[in-house]
Design goal:
single chain
Length: about 150
């Protein structure tokens, strides 16, 4: 049997292309979502402008890393990004979005302003990690569905 690398003649190029398609695209999509929010094209989360200005670049990095790792885990490993993984990621994103939603209605959870700001900062960063996991996991599910040999 002829190996794929022998057929194409470029095993290294094939691996890089596969890496870019499987892990690079979801990382770029996640970074694009974050940048689009920062530029005002869409709203994923009602944000505090101070947190966004100070930690926005770090959120882009963490979100893209989350998407890269999630897509690598669910594409290459034997794991599947199924309904359970999806629901867990959605619940995590809702938990991390809670401080921003509550703050919009004047609820501060009984925390001092400095403590609430600290919790909101960590929630902001965690939210973008969970967005990255959602994008990377969904991308891995789509790649897996289209790469199956027994498509109908």
């Amino acid at each position: 049997m002829i190996d794929h690398e022998e057929k194409t003649g470029g095993g290294g190029v094939w691996r890089v292309a596969r890496l870019l398609a499987d892990q690079g695209v979801p990382a770029a999509l996640t970074a694009g979502l974050n940048v689009a929010q920062r530029l005002g094209y869409l709203t994923l989360l009602p944000l505090n402008a101070v947190i966004e200005k100070e930690y926005g670049n770090y959120a882009v990095l963490l979100g893209a890393a989350g998407a890269f790792v999630a897509s690598a885990t669910f594409t290459r490993g034997g794991r599947r990004f199924g309904v359970g993984s999806f629901l867990l990621a959605v619940i995590a994103s809702l938990v991390t979005a809670t401080p921003f939603i509550l703050h919009r209605y004047g609820i501060d959870l009984g925390l001092a302003p400095m403590h609430f700001a600290l919790a909101a900062t960590f929630a902001y960063l965690g939210f973008y990690v969970t967005v990255g996991v959602l994008v990377g996991g969904c991308w891995a599910a789509v790649v897996r569905a289209f790469s199956r040999q027994d498509l109908y």
